[in-house]
Amino acid sequence: MTNATLVKITRYVSLLGCGVLAGVAVTVLVLELALRRLNGQEYARVRQAEFAFFSPFIGAVLLATLVAVAMLVIHARKTHSITLRPAIIALALLLLALLVSLAVNGPVNVEQLSWNVQAPPADWARILDRWQIAHAVRTLAIVLALGYLSAAILDRPVPGMPDRSKKADH
Question: Is residue 164 situated within a structural domain?
């Protein structure tokens, strides 16, 4: 496999992974706004049900995306590419999303797993607010990262691969 092929694969994985993360994050943001109408018992039941499925999936996608974007940054730095700045910004935004997840959302998710669905804590609405604010921050970071990745990658030739845009149309 050539270096150009690896760069192309890394670009696809970066965009696909970040696109999936952005899509899921925006969907969860909208879903969470709808969940505000539920009482504590209903909310706790939904959160416990979704946690088991979302966490491993999102963790795997985020890890693969972080690795791919880090590889893009390394390649852009080695080749002195103009894609370096947007790739670094995208990586920083994804790391910010990870930091918010580890500092706020993850601990709240773990806490909610131990809630008694029949009797959630008295301050469940405050905990919900904290989780949703942190999720809005990480959603914004992920969506912005996707924008910066798109700017870094789309319509940019891959060094070492023939540029098909220069071929004459016949």
Answer: no
What total of structural domains would you count in the chain? 1
For residue 108, the enclosing domain spans 3-156
Measure CA 15 to chain center. Answer: 10
CA dihedral for 110, 95, 32, 12, sign (positive or negative):
negative
Q: Is the distance from CB of 113 to CB of 48 less than 8 angstroms?
A: yes
- pTM score, whole prediction: 0.88
Q: Using CA atoms, how far apart are residues 136 and 125, in angstroms rounded to an integer?
A: 16
Q: Provide block-wise average pLDDT over 10 residues at a time, the chain (170 residues).
A: 83 96 96 92 92 88 97 93 94 98 95 93 94 97 97 73 52
Q: For residue 170, give the 3-state DSSP assignment.
A: coil
Q: Provide CB contacts within 8 A for 125, sequence distance 6+.
A: 40
Integer Rg of the chain from CA: 20
Q: Which residues contact 3 (CB under 8 A, 6 or more apart)?
A: 159, 160
For residue 163, the one-letter residue type is: D
pLDDT at position 114, please? 93
